Amino acid sequence: MKKISILISTIAMMVFCSSCEFEFSTANVSDVKVCTDMNGNLCGNDNSTLSPSTQNIYVSCKLKNAPADTKVKFTWKYVEGEPLIIDEVVLNSEDKGTNLDLHSSLSRPYNGWPKGKYAVEIRIGDEDDTPEVKNFQIR
Fold first, then answer.
1. Which of 46, 66, 73, 83 suits a disulfide with 123, CB 3.0-4.6 Å?
2. Can you name the residues that pair with 138 across neighbouring β-strands?
């Protein structure tokens, strides 16, 4: 009798959950690094301080357990004083697999990078309330 009760409860839960309109993903981001030189599709080193003369700034991460068409948004910010969005880049995993190496970059402005604090937010999809944040500074 107890086994039947558990089976009925499990079936009821499956039916209830399949009718709900929410999306659950196990996708996650790890190994976030900021660098000036790429090693393949990932940063070899993690640099928390960069020079104003740095040509390109890269951020890389590993996307894991991502279903097809997972969107990952990189938001580059200057956070010295009032935060200012520098750029936003959205990458789509399409059907390239469940585990991917991703990166985004910024090129040096004509007059060099303004000194100060910066951050890159990496957000999975539109509903990610807790993005990965990588802080770095230029001095």
1. 73
2. 50, 116
Please, what is the Cα angle at 42 between 53 and 39, to 5 degrees? Answer: 70
Q: Helix (H, G, I), strand (E, B), or coil: what is residue 6?
A: helix
Helix, strand, coil percent values for the chain (each to nearest 5):
15, 45, 40
pTM for this model (two decimals): 0.80
Reported as a single tens digit per residue, the pLDDT across 16-71 is 444 343 345 689 999 999 999 999 999 999 999 999 999 999 999 999 999 999 99
**Residue found under tokens 């991502």:** 66
> Average pLDDT, whole number, for the chain?
86
The distance in angstroms from the start CA to the end CA of the chain is: 70
Question: Among candidates 47, 42, 43, which has minimal Cα distance to 99?
Answer: 42
